[in-house]
UniProtKB/TrEMBL annotation:
<feature type="domain" description="YjiS-like">
    <location>
        <begin position="24"/>
        <end position="54"/>
    </location>
</feature>
<protein>
    <submittedName>
        <fullName>DUF1127 domain-containing protein</fullName>
    </submittedName>
</protein>
<dbReference type="Pfam" id="PF06568">
    <property type="entry name" value="YjiS-like"/>
</dbReference>
<dbReference type="InterPro" id="IPR009506">
    <property type="entry name" value="YjiS-like"/>
</dbReference>
Length: 71
């Protein structure tokens, strides 16, 4: 009889919480959204978003991030 070894990738929900990494990601997100808020009309046009879109993104709460950021 052969030995069968099956393993599954560890899911993101099982990873231990890292307070320092969380704080760093949160601070980076705050800086990015603050920078977006400060862009002028020419810079917004260069990146292809409107003032309303930039304002909406900048006002999102810190926990409202893309799903892939949770990994």
């Amino acid at each position: 009889m052969a030995l069968l070894d099956i393993s599954a990738p560890r899911s993101a929900s099982l990873r231990p919480f890292n307070l320092f990494a969380f704080a760093a990601r949160t601070a980076a997100l705050y800086r990015q959204r603050a920078a977006l808020r400060r862009l002028d009309a020419d810079a917004l046009r260069d990146i292809g978003i409107s003032r309303a879109e930039a304002t909406a993104e900048a006002q999102r709460p810190v926990w409202d991030v893309p799903h892939n950021w949770h990994n």
